[in-house]
Specification:
heterodimer, A: mainly alpha, about 70% helix, B: alpha+beta, about 35% helix, MIP18 (chain B), MIP18 family-like domain-containing protein (chain B)
């Protein structure tokens, strides 16, 4: 433990005995750390040392060059500054010496490389020096002249630093000390602001200018400085500084020239820059305080209004027709500046409390704004009304300005709103008229919509929707919603939907918007199923908007469950009520979209609400047409589905797909049976529903009283009956004989089984092996005599072969279904049970089986199917698992590529396999395996260079070859001539991307030996 | 070089912005002048660390391509009238085009009319197959060409 007297002794002896600057870097750093520690932890002990301490530190920090020590130096000075605030103290007397030491570093010029391990950046040093400078007001006579001198430097970073330092000094030194510099500061800041303002004051963010660019930072920092200067001065000083600014003759003349320009299209960059500079200055001043805001308003607002042709409300009755400026075109400069003033006064009114007496005061900005507001509002409206559709940049700015002005006018806090209720209504009216009438002017339309949304959000946060303005706004929402019902051609449906989904951002209207959308959807859905709808596009659009844009907003507001239950039951009611569907063609795209909606609605609900929906759906199921002839519990055989039945079955499937695993399935047996009947008919939702059932069904049931529920094993058994291969003719399961079915239903069963298998695989159930074996059997099924014979008997020669290979193909594709992530079902969104690494497990168990059956198979057609299956498995498994098996994989993969390369229908597999191959090429272990098979790999890639069906295959093949050019020289050199020759043909490829890759590849391979291409 | 530079202080122009082509999946991308220009614009000048594009020796307009007939015609403008580097530049262009385009294209390289004192001789030399391959057999010339072709690649790849 070190006590205060020890610390003092240590400090004394340190100051006398240690010559810091004669030490090495490491020791210097330690010394400075000791000093810092003494100052920080034993302040009271060392502060009495006074002059000695300051002098000692001056010595210690003199001539330092190492960035780490510099950081400590700056910090020491900063502490000293805070330690001796006394004007007769040591800091005051040593200020010049310390400044002399520190000023050498300014502006910081730091060029250490990034990876020097010191972890000190230029910004850190600059900040440290800034804190040191602004730590003590005694630096003021030295620092401020230096900063102002460097401000006129042509180096941008020095300029930026000077502004930052000046800002900090203004803040820390206080107004009293700085006031004598105010004239110089202003003239310097003025230069910077006028020279560094953007040319397009409003469209900067839209033109995608880099907001972080140095120029822009300089401007922002200069305006900041102005604000700090104004706010740190006392009243009288502030007043004189303010007068300095607003009475500046430069501003006066510039403003005059800006407001006298009649047309702003094609004005020079300089004028635009002046405009944005003056706008920035006005904004900064008005934001500081009410007093400043008053001043700037009094000085400039009336004359701006005059230029715009706006008169005070009380002096003239407003009448739009006799307005003089509308015809000659609005003065954009005046428009821009007045809108800037408007919005900054709004910002001021948000942060400062506006007292009642202030509002009444006749010399306040508020009073002035109020007296002009009505007329201003109409002028802004007329700008929008007269803007033409061509929309050149200058025109765009005018429109943007006007919309911004209207938005600011209507979003003042309610206590000090400058516009009356009537005027507020007018603003909404103007914006609405654009929404309803001018949808062809996209830019204006989007701006107006955004402004409306902002006004809505403001009302919600500020005054609530019961207030007079809220009620006004309610009318706007009603009007937008009523657009949905009317079938006018003014606004296209998609735009209406955009407007509605944007307005849904305002939380309180979500529910009414949802209602309106639901009504529209239901009525057009009924029209659709009764055959009264000509085009399904509008319904699909409505549903899309509902699910993807409006429904997610519901989730955040917490009302999702109610909405979802109500709407989904409503859909079911419609299906129940309409007994005959009149659509000749099932509108498949409508059905698909309704299914997606249904799934999302159900998936978001709680368990109880899901049960409610399920119950309703189950009731409707019982009214299906084909059940009129046979009871639900014992349906069997082939059934004919009416259009209505198809809709009901598909939607019921969607409900089941989206259920949570905890939701009990009542009458599971019946439902299972229904889906099992539907599956061979090729009903995909049925298969997916079955898959989700087996995926989510609890593995054991503890409640024996619910007899309708099946255990998972029973369910699997029932499902697997579909894959029974051949049976004795006297068996009671004869109806399930797979081989007796026609080819269509065979393929449907294969696909369905793939989905069921996916469900089982994802939860890690062992029954998936049976399904995998069934699929394998289908893959090699042409060895089966029965099936070919039978098919040949029916269809004549040759057809049997075709049918069989297509069965094998769909079996191969089934592996894709098994392993690929699906958007439709069995994913996180729809509450699937997912065991980690299930793909990897399946991959490693299937790989040996497939490889050995490839070896055994004799005929090529069988091989093609097997390779296709293998291709799916390899490309759908995560690369890491494939890499681990790369030794076994590569030969098979190359065979697959070679065989698939000749088939057009395999092009997707070829591409995904090629991606796997390139993945292996990038891996170190994979490279070893590639080297072992280098001959075949290169042969295979060369063949793919001329793959005709898919451009990316050619491109990727060439990229693989480029990657191979870095393999060990001795191994690849023998292939050089062959590769160069093959790639030369690709130079003449149809596609540019391939040609460019070919050039790269040619160079890479040519340079193996020499740079010359002559081989 | 002992004699000093031929054009010690050339005018350097800004690089033109690279056009990124939109990908059209269904149609074929025919070879056009921009393709050729893209492949040769980065070739370094034998004398200066600037590309041929920066020195305005080449532009897209000075290249003509006829894909059907299989012809590429490049006209380039040396920076000064008495430029002895014109043949080296021409040689670089030819080698680069040989590398980047299929061999069935017939490549004509000429200096633009009136831009060089011994224009005719240079044109003849540049389009003489045997003289070109003889030049490429010359190790020092070969090295110079390679330097021009590959020194900018550090930046482009």
């Amino acid at each position: 433990m070190v006590d205060n007297s020890d610390a003092r002794t240590l400090a004394k002896s340190f100051l006398i005995n240690v010559q810091v600057q004669s030490l090495a870097v490491r020791d210097r750093k330690l010394c400075l750390e000791v000093l810092q520690c003494l100052l920080d932890a034993y302040t009271d002990a060392v502060v009495v040392l006074g002059d000695d301490l300051v002098y000692g530190i001056c010595e210690a920090i003199d001539e330092e060059k190492d960035p780490r020590c510099l950081m400590l130096n700056f910090h020491l000075v900063e502490i000293l500054g805070h330690l001796y605030p006394d004007p007769s103290g040591p800091m005051a007397s040593f200020a010049q010496d310390i400044f002399d030491i520190l000023s050498r570093y300014y502006p910081i010029y730091f060029t250490h490389p990034k990876d020097d391990g010191l972890d000190i950046k230029r910004e850190d040093l600059s900040k440290g020096l800034m804190n040191a400078f602004s730590s003590s007001p005694f630096f003021e006579p030295f620092v401020v002249p230096l900063l102002l001198e460097k401000l006129s430097s042509s180096l941008l970073s020095a300029k930026l630093d000077s502004l930052k330092y000046l800002n900090s000094c203004l803040y820390h030194y206080g107004g009293k000390r700085m006031v004598k510099h105010s004239r110089v500061i202003w003239s310097n800041l003025k230069d910077v602001i006028f020279n560094f303002s953007p040319e397009r004051p409003l469209l900067t963010d839209e033109l995608d200018v880099d907001m972080k660019s140095e120029v822009n930072q300089i401007r922002m920092e200069a305006l900041n400085c102005l604000e700090t200067a104004l706010s740190c001065f006392d009243f009288s000083e502030q007043d004189s500084f303010l007068c300095l600014i607003i009475d500046d003759p430069d501003i006066g003349t510039k403003l005059e020239s800006l407001t006298s320009i009649t047309s702003y299209s094609g004005t020079s960059a300089e004028i635009q820059r002046d405009l944005s500079a003056i706008g920035g200055i006005f904004t900064s001043i008005a934001k500081v305080s009410i007093y400043c805001c008053n001043k700037v308003f009094l000085k400039f607002f009336p004359c701006l209004m005059d230029v715009l042709g706006v008169s005070r409300n009380h002096s003239s009755q407003f009448c739009i027709t006799n307005h003089k400026t509308v015809h000659g075109g609005m003065n954009f400069g005046a428009l821009f500046l007045s809108v800037e003033l408007l919005s900054s006064s709004r910002e001021l009114s948000l942060v400062s409390n506006i007292a009642a007496e202030f509002i009444a005061e006749s010399k306040s900005w508020f009073f002035m704004l109020k007296s002009f507001s009505m007329d201003l509002c109409h002028v802004l409206g007329s700008v929008l009304r007269t803007s033409n559709t061509s929309m050149v940049a200058s025109e765009k700015e005018g429109v943007l300005c006007a919309v911004k002005g209207l938005q600011s006018l209507s979003t003042f806090p309610s206590s000090c709103s400058p516009i009356s209720e009537g005027c507020y209504e007018d603003v909404l009216e103007i914006l609405m008229s654009i929404i309803t009438g001018r949808s062809d002017e996209t830019y204006l339309w989007n701006l107006s919509l955004k402004a409306l949304v902002q006004i809505g959000l403001w009302i919600e946060s500020a005054s609530g929707h019961d207030s007079a303005r809220g009620i006004c706004y309610n009318k706007v929402v009603e009007k937008i919603l009523s657009m949905l019902q009317t079938n006018d051609s003014m606004v296209s449906l998609s735009l209406k939907l955009v407007a509605i989904s944007e307005i849904a951002n305002v939380g309180q209207y979500v529910l009414s918007i949802i209602r309106a959308l639901e009504d529209a959807i239901i009525s057009s859905l009924v029209a659709c199923i009764q055959g009264g709808l000509k085009s399904s596009d509008s319904l699909v659009g409505l549903l899309e908007c509902y699910t993807s844009r409006v429904l997610p907003r519901c989730c955040t507001s917490g009302s999702f469950d109610d909405v979802a239950v109500q709407f989904s039951i409503n859909i079911w009611n419609q299906l129940e009520n309409v007994s005959v569907f009149n659509t000749d063609v099932t509108m498949q795209n409508v059905l698909d979209q309704v299914m997606i909606t249904m799934k999302l609605l159900v998936a978001g609900c709680t368990v109880e609400n899901q049960s409610l929906i399920l119950k309703k759906a189950h009731c409707v199921i019982l009214s299906m047409d084909f059940l009129k002839t046979q009871p639900f519990q014992s349906i069997h055989g082939i059934i004919a589905l009416s259009c209505r039945d198809k809709w009901i079955a598909s939607l019921f499937g969607s409900v089941v797909i989206a259920l949570r695993s905890q939701t009990p399935l009542t009458d599971m047996k019946g439902i299972l049976n229904l889906f099992l009947i539907l599956l061979p008919e090729g009903n995909l939702p049925a298969a997916q529903a079955l898959a989700s059932m087996v995926n989510k069904c609890p593995s054991s049931i503890n409640e024996p009283e619910i007899s309708a529920r099946l255990s998972l094993d029973q369910a699997c058994e029932d499902i697997l009956k579909l894959c029974l291969w051949t049976l004795e003719s006297n068996s009671h399961l004869k109806q399930y004989n797979f081989l007796d079915r026609d080819i269509c239903s065979q393929r449907s069963i294969v696909l369905g089984m793939a989905w069921v298998g996916k469900g089982l695989l994802m939860r890690g159930h062992e029954k998936v092996t049976e399904i995998a074996m069934f699929l394998m059997k289908c893959l090699v099924s042409d060895s089966n005599e029965d099936i070919t014979l039978q098919q040949q008997k029916e269809n004549g020669k040759g057809v049997g072969m075709d049918a069989n290979s297509s069965l094998a193909t769909s079996a191969a594709d089934a592996f894709h279904v098994l392993l690929n992530d699906s958007e439709d079902c069995l994913n996180k969104k729809f509450h699937a049970t997912i065991r980690p690494l299930y793909k990897q497990r399946f991959f490693s168990s299937m790989l040996p089986i497939l490889l050995s059956s490839i070896k055994e198979s004799g005929s090529t057609s069988k091989k093609i199917a097997l390779y296709r299956a293998l291709g799916h498995i390899i490309s759908d498994t995560p690369l890491a698992a494939v890499l681990a098996e790369s030794k076994k994989i590569i030969p098979a993969l190359l065979d697959t590529l070679a065989i698939s390369g000749s088939e057009t229908s395999h092009k997707k597999i070829v591409y995904s396999l090629l991606l796997v191959l390139s993945g292996i090429l990038m891996d170190d272990n994979g490279k070893v395996t590639i080297l072992e098979n280098i001959h075949t790999v290169i042969e295979c890639l060369i063949k793919l260079i001329s793959y005709p069906d898919l451009m990316i295959v050619r491109e990727t093949a060439i990229q693989c070859l480029v990657a191979m050019s870095v393999l060990p020289h001795a191994r690849i050199f023998p292939f050089r001539p062959r590769v160069l020759k093959a790639v030369a043909t690709a130079l003449d490829d149809r596609k540019r991307a391939v040609r460019q890759e070919a050039v790269r590849c040619r160079q890479a391979w040519a340079s193996i030996a020499s740079r010359s291409l002559q081989f | 070089m002992t004699l000093g530079m031929i054009n010690a202080n050339p005018v350097v122009h800004a690089k033109r912005e690279r056009i990124i082509r939109s990908e059209d999946i269904h149609s074929d991308d025919a070879l056009d002048a921009l393709d050729v220009f893209d492949s040769v614009r980065d070739i370094k000048d034998p004398e200066h660390p600037y590309s041929l594009e920066q020195l305005s020796v080449l532009s897209e307009e000075s290249i003509a391509v006829d894909e059907k007939l299989g012809r590429i015609k490049i006209t380039f403008t040396p920076t000064v009238k008495h430029c002895s580097m014109a043949t080296v530049i021409g040689l670089c262009l030819r080698v680069k085009l040989m590398q980047c385009f299929p061999p069935h294209f017939k490549v004509d390289i000429t200096v633009s009319p009136g831009s060089l004192a011994n224009e005719e001789a240079v044109n003849k030399q540049l389009n003489d197959k045997e003289r070109v391959s003889a030049a490429l057999e010359n190790p020092s010339l070969r090295q110079l060409v390679d330097e021009c072709l590959y020194s900018n690649e550090l930046y482009s790849y």
